Amino acid sequence: MNKRIFAAMMTAAAVLVLAGCGGTTTSTTTEEAAAVATTQEAEVAAEYEWQTDPTAYLTGITAADFVELPADYASLTVEVEPAAEVTDEEVESLIDRQREAKKELQEIKGRSVVQEGDTANIDYVGKIDGVEFDGGTDSDYDLTIGSGSFIAGFEDGLIGHEVGETVTLSLTFPEDYSDTTKAGVAAEFDVTINAIKEYVVPDLTDDFVVSLGITDDFGNLVSTVSDFRAYVRNYLIENNESQYTQRLEEAIKSTLMEKSSFKKEIPEAMVQRVSETMTQELTSYGMQYGIDLKTLMQLAYGSTEETYLDDIRAMAEESVQRIIILKAIGDKEGLSMTDDQFQAELETAVNSASGYTSVSDVPKEDVEAYREVLDRQKILEFLKGKANVVAPAAEDASESATAEEAAQ
Predict the structure, then answer these.
(1) Class of domain 104-200
(2) Which of 352, 345, 388, 338 is closest to 367 using CA atoms?
(3) What is the rounded average pLDDT of the residues 50-73?
């Protein structure tokens, strides 16, 4: 089990990503290998030297030494789109998606002929020049007719045939087939239709709701359609409010960035820490979609092969500036936690989570990052309570029409 129990809360957590250069050689001497190892160790040591630098963390600096805060930081006016209202259509749409996710294949009764869109359960044997070939045989296979899963002519060739019938299909693999040994080759498939099935979406009933096993905020099972609709509506309301909170916090941080000025360079160790964390998080995110870090940066941020690492560093620098601004406000307003307050919070977190047996087991970088998160949450709550939040001004209809006419 991963012991980084605070990972979900740490947008600036320190994550060790020990990466080294690898390769093979047939003539490397012991001395050469030792020299390479020494060089690599030096590079790794330089890369992670921030871990022993106190200025890598907010507790190691005085934030006010770096930034000049705007005089009106506690009364900012920010434009934020209000939380969207939840409609009946949205509630029903989410319920329908939940039902669709629970659809099941069921054998069709009262019809035995295969049609487009059916799922045919089949056994098949593929032969080339009368000899079975690897990958050409299977049994009890559910094939959706029209899915394009098999080569052209296979699925269409089953339409109109009945359950229990064996059909011989004479087909040709496409010229661009992935297995080049079969590309453009003629083959025969003996296909036995065992059954025809269709996906059935469950009706919205109390029994269906109970089968979902959903509990409300009080731990009570959601067991009726009416309660389920109320649950879904509340979920959507909370989601919209969460998005609104994110927009509000971003607006406050962006406005503070615009109105603050930095008196000196931000700590390099802190930039390295946040940059490495961002690199690790972005790499993991890209892996979920089967792309590497470089490709993710190109797609999401318009980076190039030459600039993507510099772009991550620039993002890290801005992130560090933002957390220093918030820390300066927290210090000035007396919002930052005392050591005793933080120790109590840390002990509570460790006791309520698995992976660590005591506070002393938690790595320093996790401890410091957790403290920064808790402080930022408290400071942002203070700022949200003080901010003058206004909705963006609606575009004047006549001005919009005039602009549209001018564009034409």
Answers:
(1) alpha beta
(2) 345
(3) 94
